[in-house]
Design goal:
The complex is a heterodimer of chains A (529) and B (298). Chain A contains 18 helices and 22 strands. Chain B is mainly α and 298 residues long. Chain B starts with a helix and ends with a helix. The chains are: A alpha/beta (529), B mainly alpha (298).
Amino acid sequence: MNNSTTSAPGRSGNASIRLGAVDICKNYGPVAANRNVSLGIAPGGIHAIVGENGAGKSTLMRIFQGIEQPDCGHIIIDDTPIRLSGPKQALNLGIGMVHQEFMLAPDLTLLENLVLGNEPEAHSLGVLSTIDWSQAKRAGHALARQTGVRVDWKRHAGGAPVHMQQFVEIMRLLRFGARILILDEPTAVLAPPQVDDLFNLLRNLSANGTTIVFISHKMNEVLALADTVSVLRQGQVTFEAKVCDVDVHTIASHIVGGHSDKTVKPHEPAAIKAHSTGTICNVRNLCVRAKEMSHPLHDVSFSINKGEILGLAGVSGNGQDELVECLVGLRMPHAGTVTLDREDITHATNAQRRRLGLGYVSADRAKEGLAASASVLFNVIAGSHRDRPIKKGLFLNPKVMRTSAIERLTKLAVKYGRLNDVAQSLSGGNQQRLVFARETASEPTLLIVSQPTRGVDLNGIAVIHEFLKTFCDNGGSVLLVSEELDELLSLSNRIIVMADGRIVGETTAGSTDVTEIGQMMVMQGAHNG
Amino acid sequence: MIADQLIAAAITMTTPILLAAMGGLVNRQAGIVNIGLEGKMLVGAFTAVVVSSITDGWLPAVLCAALAGSLVGLLFSLVITRANANMIVAGLGLNVLIAGVLGFVLNWYFDASGTLRLPDVTLLPHVLPSTVSSIPVVGRTLENLEPLTIFAWLSVAALPFLLANTRLGLWIRVSGNAPQVARAMGLPGKNVQDFSTAFAGFFAGLGGAHLALASIGLFNEGLTAGRGFIALAAFYFGRDKPVATAMVCLLFGFLDATQIRMQTAGLPPKLIGTIPYLLVLIALCIVGWRASRKESPS
């Protein structure tokens, strides 16, 4: 196995800081993504970097990888200040990054993917030389032993389980000589038992001297895995500690900072009002078969009452997206029924459901929620184009279109330049408010909302939360799917928990807390995976 | 006797399609669908006839045809990989452009319309002594065997190994399958794609040379008659696998050969001539249907 030949300055086992940052600043126009960030990560440790969306984690990681250059400050590798020119140099110095999207070619075998870019040659004919597969296999087996993972190297990467792909990507970085592994939310795509496997692997690596940095926003993972933790908030390191010295609440309060009264306040029982009774939506024994890249649903049943917010919690990728798609008519279940206002809509089209009073705020704002390159005007009017007076004869009435667009946008305080600006020119929070403005214009009785505050700034979050509450006070119902447990706890009347395609628990918001729900999300499915 | 002739004709008819298809499948494995094979075959055929007439030798003619094909291929590739042109539109454009330019050159320089007859065109030599013709069934095939047919079938045997086991082969496959991965791993993805398109041009050029120099020894504007597209269908149907693709080429070659025989039997020739193309359409439908079956849950 030929490791990288570029020698790291002062590459030695006794460096006091393996990877560090000193006073790093990075601005994107007026936005300060990183402000005087300083970090020091000791060799062989596992360091967690936590923070909200937009706290500056990704920017910092891009700087560590050499993709972005800091405006001021510098990074440190093995106690030596370094300026990185790009990912290749970072890798040569031993910094390897595992992205959320794996960098494996699906049609190639895992072994082929392992050696990609650094193929062992049977004889030296340059690019025409044949690959020494037996040497590749030996390297693969050695890495598998080192990490404590069993790998079927002949398998195509595309057909291998997701965690196996991740492990092979980690092994490939190790084979390139990575001594520092940076993992960007590595558990986001994994089921709970696979998370355990990953953590075991990372612990093995750490014990053998690899330094590990992982980005996360899941507290339980930080506590389970990390030795040290840094909290980033609004581009600054606001808190650093050894994990053994802190508890969840301390970390959480530093993550949300001054707004802690807004987002992590315990639920006020007063907010749970018994609204008008009766169910608006009834889901019975819904089953969906697994297709490529999707999670099956097993016998999902629940109902949504009139005037309530029903929260749906779960680790992402446990079937929530598939359930939402079944409810809005983008995916057909193979068994079970869905009723809306006593009408069977199991096999209705999305348009039919919308006519019955369904609104849908997609988790994938850029692709499903908005036509990103179309104008603000068209985005907020879309779906109403058949309704009079916006439709006039065969054509649209531009005047009415504009006035009703402005009316809708004002209602949610969307900040935009001109109506003809493209939707993607708005900030994340305003884009999301635009989606809400459109979806509620038809006065739906049931709003299905998935990850409404993902990538939305704090002010936008407040507006959206306030809006959802008002919507329910006026008699509407909401299914709120979110990975942010605090959001679910502060908004929902009831919370159902999903794991491995099943509903594994139900609780009322007043009688539970983050830990209980977190445990339901994580513990369930561990025995049947 | 008839079987004899039929097999010999089928093998001869297969060679140009096979050569173009081998180039095209490597190209497609690297992620470029080469619609321009037809044009490159035409360039190869033209070059082969001209060079053969000038040098009086088949080998320089074949080599120049291949080089001309790969040069056109490389330029075509740069248009796609560097100028980000759409590969389908660029390929169609290339075919029209080449047909137009060759037609112009025929008129302007050779003062010929449509067909170019040159003196002293050397045909491809037969490699085996004529005594082999006495062998039953395959005798005539062996007698007709020339270097390009042998090369074509050798490449069918060698390509699976080369693609699977060389560094370049691995790079070609990853460039087509996951270009972003190739980039992330520091591989020269675009160069690999350019190489593969030049490679396809090389093989298409050889295919054109075979069309011109196997037996007729002249160039005609309609010489390729859609064989570049038949090759395209062959590697689609053969899922870019050399051996499977070769079998499909053999089938098309066989149909081509029977078609000619049926014409002599008095059936309407134009109608019979459409059979291979009809089969291409059916083949593509089958490929698509099989792919959609594979995606749906079992």
